[in-house]
Specification:
Helix content is 34%, strand content 17%. The chain is an alpha+beta fold. The protein contains six helices and six strands; from the N terminus they run βαβαββββαααα. The chain has two domains: 3-124; 130-159, no CATH class.
C-alpha cells in the first residue's frame, strides 16, 4: 500500500463541484484509508499560503498528471488560474511511492471522464480487504453448480491462502 496525502479545507469545500462527487466530508476518506491500512496524512490547505498552495499543486498534482497523461488544470482551477481550488474547493488525494507523487485524485482522463476521490476509495478494496474470502465463497458456489461436469477435487476456499491478494 502506498502512502497518501490529503489536502483539505472544510471552509472552502464545495459539495456541488463535479470533481467532489460522492465526497461529503473528510471523515469518510479517513475511515476508508484506515480500513485499507494506508499510511496517510492530512494537510489543512487553509493554513497554506497562496505560494505554498501553488507549489503543492505543481509538485503534487501536475507532476503525476504529466506522467500519467491526464488533466488536472480545470479540476483544481481554471485555464487562467490553475491550482486555485487545490485542497480548498476541491480536496486533493495524492498517492505517494517512496515519497514521490505518482497519482492524484480527482483528475480528468483523456476521454473527459472525471475520476474522483470516491472512485479511488472504492477501488481500494473489496477482495484485497477481505483476504479473498468473498471471492472464494462465490467460486465455491459456482463450482458446486457445475460439479456434474468434472470436479477439481478441492474447493476454492481450500486453494486460497490466507492473506494472499494475487
Amino acid at each position: 500500500m502506498s502512502d497518501v496525502e490529503v489536502f483539505y479545507n472544510a471552509g472552502e469545500f464545495q459539495e456541488d463541484e463535479p470533481a467532489n462527487a460522492g465526497l461529503e466530508d473528510l471523515s469518510r476518506v479517513r475511515n476508508r484509508l484506515a480500513e485499507a491500512a494506508a499510511t496517510y496524512s492530512v494537510v489543512d490547505a487553509g493554513e497554506l499560503t497562496e505560494q505554498d498552495r501553488e507549489e503543492a499543486y505543481l509538485s503534487r498534482a501536475v507532476r503525476p498528471s504529466v506522467s500519467r497523461r491526464y488533466r488536472v488544470r480545470r479540476i483544481f482551477g481554471t485555464n487562467k488560474y490553475p491550482g486555485q481550488y487545490f485542497g480548498g474547493a476541491v480536496p486533493a488525494l495524492v498517492v505517494l511511492e517512496d515519497g514521490r507523487p505518482v497519482d492524484v485524485y480527482p483528475h480528468e482522463e483523456q476521454d473527459g471522464t472525471i475520476v474522483t476521490i470516491r472512485d479511488y476509495l472504492d477501488g481500494l478494496g473489496g477482495e484485497a480487504r477481505t483476504g479473498g474470502q468473498d471471492l472464494a465463497r462465490r467460486m465455491d458456489a459456482l463450482s458446486a453448480r457445475i460439479a456434474g461436469y468434472g470436479a477439481v477435487g478441492a474447493t476454492a476456499s481450500e486453494l486460497v491462502e490466507d492473506g494472499r491478494t494475487r
